[in-house]
Amino acid sequence: MRYKPEDYIVELVADIYEDHRISDFGFDPIQLCKDMGHIVLPYSSFNNDFDDYNSILLRKQDKDGFSWFNSKTGKCEIYYNDNIKPRLRVKFTVPHELGHVEYGHIFQEVITNEMEDIANEFARQLYAPHIILVTYDIMSVHEIMSVFNVTEAYASTILSRLKNRLKYHGDSFSENEHRILEAFDYNRRHKK
To answer: Among 20, 110, 129, 158, which has the minimal tally of Cβ within 10 Å of its Cβ?
Structure first.
């Protein structure tokens, strides 16, 4: 039985790798979001005396981060907690919120569990695609932590999902996963 990742997620990730020339392990997800035209702000950019609707919105949101569409600016905004421990948690939080933006969840009244699952999978596929891990033989928690500069918990989740995939479905990859690898390798070779 061939493993079939959520192809609509992997297809978007492949588009991003191609369009935004991702060429580094552990790339800066904040810079990627900015390059995609989104506003990205740390929680610390707001102080308690800041009497703006953004500050009110900020206090109502998640401890890690959140995203929304600002109708005043016409831009999608991603906020992240830059004081959360461990600091590397933003390597998951920001791609997760980008997933909510890219799939239009920010325009919904309620974020459902299914939307959270989609944003989680998008974040994992964007930041450490299975095909890159297998191709570059990055197959331990320690290696994932070191190469991608992520927390042990994030590395463990990534590796667990990859090992489960390989155990039950082997190492065949979809066309869009191959697009990710081809874009990544091309971008590495042609890096400025």
So the answer is: 110
192 inside domain? no
- Total structural domains in the chain? 1
Q: Which long-range contacts (CB under 8 A, 24 or more apart) does 121-124 make?
A: 121/6, 121/9, 122/9, 122/12, 122/13, 122/95, 122/96, 122/98, 123/92, 123/95, 123/96, 123/98, 123/99, 124/157, 124/158, 124/161
Q: How far is CA 69 from the centre of its chain?
A: 18
Residues 155, 42: contact at Cβ < 8 Å? no
**Inside any domain, residue 63:** yes
- Mean pLDDT over each residue of the chain, to the nearest integer: 88
In this prediction, residues 113-129 reach a mean pLDDT of 94
**pTM confidence score:** 0.88
Q: CB–CB of 39/75 below 8 Å?
A: yes
> Is 90 inside any structural domain?
yes
Q: Which amino acid is at 70?
A: N
pLDDT tens string 146-188: 999 999 999 999 999 999 999 988 888 999 999 999 999 999 9
Whether the CB-CB separation of 38 and 76 falls below 8 Å is answered with: yes
